[in-house]
Amino acid sequence: MSDKVTREAQIARDVGIVEAGLDSGSLSNVRYLLNFSLPPADIADLIEASTPQERQVIWKLLKEKHRGEVLSELAEDVAGDFLENMAPKELAEVTADLDTDDIADILQQLPATLTAQVLHSMRAQDRQRVERVLGYSDDVAGGLMNTDTVSVRPHVTVKTALRYFRQLPALPQIFDSLLVVNTDDRLLGSVSVNSLLTADPSTEIKALMDEEPVSINVDMASMKVALLFEKRDLVSAPVVDGDGCLLGRITVDDIVDLYRDEAENHIMERAGMDAEQDTFAPVMKTQRRRAVWLSINLVAAFMAAAVIGLFEATIEQFVALAVLQPIVASMGGIAGNQSLAIMIRAQVLGQINRGNIGWLFSREVRAGLLNGVLFSVLVGVIAWFWFEHAALSWVIAMALVVNLFIAAVAGVLTPMLLQRFKIDPALAGGVLVTTLTDVGGFFTFLGLATIILVH
Amino acid sequence: MSDKVTREAQIARDVGIVEAGLDSGSLSNVRYLLNFSLPPADIADLIEASTPQERQVIWKLLKEKHRGEVLSELAEDVAGDFLENMAPKELAEVTADLDTDDIADILQQLPATLTAQVLHSMRAQDRQRVERVLGYSDDVAGGLMNTDTVSVRPHVTVKTALRYFRQLPALPQIFDSLLVVNTDDRLLGSVSVNSLLTADPSTEIKALMDEEPVSINVDMASMKVALLFEKRDLVSAPVVDGDGCLLGRITVDDIVDLYRDEAENHIMERAGMDAEQDTFAPVMKTQRRRAVWLSINLVAAFMAAAVIGLFEATIEQFVALAVLQPIVASMGGIAGNQSLAIMIRAQVLGQINRGNIGWLFSREVRAGLLNGVLFSVLVGVIAWFWFEHAALSWVIAMALVVNLFIAAVAGVLTPMLLQRFKIDPALAGGVLVTTLTDVGGFFTFLGLATIILVH
C-alpha cells in the first residue's frame, strides 16, 4: 500500500479527469471512469457539483446497473430530475439491489400512481419488504430501517449459526451483532460479533446473549434514534413493534447521513431555506423559492416602517433620530438571536425541563440587562460626542437597555411558543425574534425621544 | 423483552427520579441510580441540564470509577469546572480506562504544566499512547484516533488469529475489520469481520484480505475524515503516517459525535457563538462572551448610521425616507444571507471548483436581480399608496434592485474571501454580508433620493 497511490488519492485524480473530460467533450475516458472506477457517492457528488447540462451527460454515460446506487446518494432535488424521465419498470430494475430504506426514500419522491407501478414491477418478496418501510415516514425509526436482518433462535450453537451465515447470499455490510428471536419473532436479545468470534463453536447462542440490548420502537422519532446512537456508541440497533417483534434494523451509516443533513439544514435555515434547495438549480426555481422568505421579511420590514411612521413628526424635528435608529434595532436583533440560539440548541439536546426553565429565563434576562447597561453607556457616550446633545444620548442609552431586555424575553419565549405550535424554531425563530426587536427597538427609541425631546 | 420495560424506558424513568431527588434533597436514591443504573452519557446529559449548584451535588455523589467516562461525555465548558478541582494523580486514575482520543481530549483542556503532571502519574505504556495522540490537534485525523488497534501478519491463519483474539484482554468495542501489517508495521490491507466469521479456520489471512482498504493519513482534516466515513459507509478506518505505517484507528462513534457537534455549531454560529458556550454557565461568563459579538455588530451599526448621517439634509426635507430606509436594508440583508447560506453549504460539501464558480456566480446575480425587480415593483406600489409621492416610489424601487444585486455579489464573494484568509465563513459571514447590504442599502436609497428628490 505504501509504494502505490492510495485508493482515495486515485479517486480524487479520477474525479479531476472526469471534470476535465466534461469540459473538453472527450467522453470515452469519462465513461470508463464513471462505470469502472468511481464509487457511487463520488459520482453523486460530481453530478451535484455540475451544471444542469453536464448532469444529463454524466447520467447518459452511466450504465443502468450503477444508476440505483447513485440515485440513492443524490440530493432529492437532483434525483428528481432523473426520476421524472424513468419508466416504472426501469426504476424497479435499477433499484433492485438497494437497501430497503433507500428504495423507500426514492419511491417516496414519486407521485402515488407511479409508486404503485414501480412496486408492481418488483419481485414479490422485494415488494413486500419495501411496502413495509413505505408505511413509515422518514421522521421515524420505521423510515430509517432495513428489513434484511439476520436472526437466530436462542438454542442453536455458534457452530450452527456460522453454518447458517455461510448459506446466506451475503452477510449485511454493517454487521456487528446477531439478533436472537423466539418462534413468534419476538426479540430476545443480541450477540455481539466479538463474542461470536471468540466463543467456542459448541456454545449455545443463549449463553452469549445480551438480554437487554438497545431496541428501538418503530415509531421513535428519527432525531431521538440519532441521539441514542450517539449516546450509546451504537453501530446497529434492532427495530421492534409495540409487541417487541423484530421488524428490521437501523445501521450507523444512516445515522451519519442524518446528522450530516442536520448540519446542512442548520446552515440553510438561517436564511429561511431548505437544505434540499439545490445549489445548482435553474435560476427561476431558485428565485421563486427565495421570494417566499423575502415576502415574509417584507411584511416584517413594513411593520417596522409603520412604527417609524408613527413618529414622523418627531424625526422631522430631530433628524439625528433617523441616523441613530438602526443601532438600537440591530443591537437588539443580535442579542435576541443569541438567546434564541442557546434555546434552540438546548431544545435539540432535550436539555430544557420544568425544573430549569425558570433559572434559564432569569439568566438570559440578567445577561441581556448587563449587556444592555454596558452598551448603553458606550453608545450614549459616542452619540454625545457625535451630536453633542445630552438628552439625545440619554434617549438612545435608555432605549438600548429596554431593547436588550425585549431581546432576551423574545429569544427565550419565541422558540418555546413555536415548539408548542409544532413550527420549527430553527427556521421561523430568527425572523420572528428580529421582527420583535426591530419593532420594539424603533418604538422604544422614537417613543422615548417624543416624550423627552419634544414634550 | 416484550413483557418487561425496555432498558431505554427504564433509563428515562431513572433520570426523572434523579431530577426529583435533587429537587427534594433526598439523595440516597440518587446516589444509587447514578452509580448502579444510569449510563455515563445520560449522567453527562443530566449534569449539563442542571444548574451549577446541582452539578456539584451530582459530581460528589458519583463514584470515582464512573467519573472518567462522564467527563469524556461532558461539554468542554462543564467538564472544565470539575477538572479545575482535581489533582493530577486523581485525573490519571479516573481516565485510565478511557480510549486514547478521549484521554487526549480531556488533557488538552488543562494547562500544560498540569498535563505533564497527569502524564507522569500514568503507567508508562498508557503515557506513550496518550502522548502520541496529544501531538495532534482535534482538527486532524490524529486527534480523533485510538491507538489500540488489533493487527496481524498476512501469513497467519484464521485459526491463529482467533486464538490471538482470545488472549487479548478484550476486543475493541467497535470491531468490524482486522488490520493486516508487515513486520515494519506498514498497513497491507484489512479483513472484514464478516469474512473471518464465515471463512474456513485454516485459510490464510492474506487470502481474505482487501488490499485497498480506505486508509486515512494522520494529517487529514477531521471534516474530510467525516465526509469519507459518510461517503463510504465506514464503521472504522485505519490511520497511517506518510510512510503507510499503522498509527491507530478511527471509529464511527467519533464521527457521529463530530457531525453532532457540527450541527450544534451551525445553530450557534448564526449568533456568533461557540457551541461549547454553555447553556447553564453563570451570567457573568455568558454576558462577557456575548459582548464580543455585540461589539463587532456595534461597529457595523455605527458604519450604517454614519452613512445615514451623510444624508441628514435630505432626510430633513423628506422624513418619509427615514420611515422607508429599513425596508431596503433588511431585504438586502435577507437576500445576501440566502446567497451566503448556499455558498457555505457548497463549500462544506466541497462542491465549488473552478469549472462552476462562474456559472454559480452568474446564477446568484440573476436570481437576485429577478427578485429585485419583483419586490421593487411591489414595494414601489405600496410606498405610492402610503405617501402618494411618485418620485419617492421610484427611488425606493430602484434602490431595492441595486441592493439585491449588491446582496448577491456580497453573498457569493464574502465566503470565498473569508476562506482564503482562513476565517470560518459560517461564523463571520453573516455579520459581514449584513453590514455590506446595510451600508449599501442606506447609501443607495438616500443617495438616489438626494439626486432625484432634492436636486
Automatic annotation (TrEMBL), chains A, B:
Q: Please report the record's description of how this protein sits within the membrane.
A: Multi-pass membrane protein
* Keyword Transport annotated: yes
Domain spans labelled CBS: 145-208, 209-265
Question: Do you know which CDD domains this protein is assigned to?
Answer: CBS_pair_Mg_transporter
User: Which Gene Ontology cellular-component terms appear in the entry?
Assistant: plasma membrane
Task: List all membrane-crossing ranges.
Answer: 291-311, 323-344, 365-387, 393-418, 430-454
| Matching Gene3D superfamilies | CBS-domain, MgtE N-terminal domain-like, SLC41 divalent cation transporters, integral membrane domain
Principal place where this protein is found? membrane
Q: From the UniProt record, which GO molecular function terms apply?
A: magnesium ion transmembrane transporter activity; metal ion binding
Subcellular localization? Cell membrane; Membrane
Q: Which UniProt keywords apply?
A: CBS domain, Cell membrane, Magnesium, Membrane, Metal-binding, Transmembrane, Transmembrane helix, Transport
List, alphabetically, the SUPFAM superfamilies matched: CBS-domain pair, MgtE membrane domain-like, MgtE N-terminal domain-like
Q: What does this protein do?
A: Acts as a magnesium transporter.
The record's note on quaternary structure and interaction partners says: Homodimer.
Q: Which NCBIfam families does this chain map to? A: mgtE (TIGR00400)
Q: Which family does it belong to?
A: Belongs to the SLC41A transporter family.
Q: What is this protein called?
A: Magnesium transporter MgtE
Q: Which organism is it from?
A: Corallincola holothuriorum
